[in-house]
Amino acid sequence: MRAWLWLMAGAAAEVGWIAGLRFSTTAIEWAATVIAAAASVGLALGATRDLPATTVYTLFVGLGAFGAMALQVAFLDTALSPAAYGFMVFLIVCVIGLKRTGGHA
To answer: Which residues fall within 8 angstroms of residue 105, CB to CB, at 6 or more apart?
Structure first.
């Protein structure tokens, strides 16, 4: 269970630094972006203590991509096609499938 907390926090940090790249304008905001980037990597590495690195990487990238797309829809008024929503659902189904078949996590 601990690995999933590391992964979720890492994905949140991933979305944070992605947003920081888009919106940072001051030195403090850029510093926060760098800290979020370092935190996302550190948290992903923490998850490798309990899960295989390939599983961690796949889930980390998938959750980060889902979070970045959700950020765009929620805060940037980005319109998505029905197919894009379908792929987002499919991505989450795949993440859940990896969780359920992942063995010792």
So the answer is: 1, 3, 4, 50, 51, 55, 99
